[in-house]
From TrEMBL:
Signal peptide extent: none
This protein's UniProt keywords: ATP-binding, DNA-binding, Metal-binding, Nucleotide-binding, Repressor, Transcription, Transcription regulation, Zinc, Zinc-finger
Example GO BP: negative regulation of DNA-templated transcription
Organism: Caulobacter vibrioides (Caulobacter crescentus)
Zinc finger (unnamed) boundaries: 3-34
Keyword Ribonucleoprotein: no
Designated name of the protein: Transcriptional repressor NrdR
Length: 157
């Protein structure tokens, strides 16, 4: 494994342990050149996934992009990082288990919305506002009413 600090081609594994409910191996590494320490994760990848955008453009699936979008939705919300990681792993497993290598971005978006709704309704609405491209407050109201969240919002006001 190449050192992310100095680019040295070799690194030493100092510690290995399972993480994410056994879905990955976490390795602590050290660079013999610069003594930098870093962590890597090894995950089983069942197949190469390609995301098909609405425009028809195809991009390789990027787990880190999924993590970033979910993390942004959950910013300043009481959800731990390991919960986010488990959520992302579950979404990736669902995508891989579809048996398809090309997946529409809408499928990914819907899976993220389902996962966020189960974890945090505020993050769910945040994500939906970007994913569904809300432009006006009425868009929020229609969405909240259709999802049955509007009553909860009014009850808490």
């Amino acid at each position: 494994m190449r050192c992310p600090f100095c680019g040295h081609a070799e690194s030493q594994v100092k510690d290995s342990r399972p993480s994410e409910d056994g879905a990955a191996i976490r390795r602590r590494r050290s660079c013999p050149e610069c003594a930098g320490r870093f962590t890597t994760f090894e995950r089983v990848q069942l197949r190469e996934l390609t995301i098909v955008k609405r425009s028809g453009r195809r991009n390789p699936f990027d787990r880190e992009k999924l993590v970033r979008s979910i993390t942004i939705s959950l910013r300043k919300r009481p959800v731990e990082a390991d919960r986010i990681e488990r959520m992302v792993s579950a979404i990736v497993r669902q995508l891989e288990s579809r048996g398809e290598t090309e997946i529409p971005s809408s499928v990914v978006g819907e899976l993220v919305m389902q996962a966020l709704k189960a974890v945090d309704e505020v993050a769910y609405v945040r994500y939906a506002s970007v994913y569904r491209d809300f432009r006006e407050t009425q868009d929020f109201a229609r969405f909240l009413g259709a999802e049955g969240l509007n009553e909860d919002v009014e009850a808490n006001s």
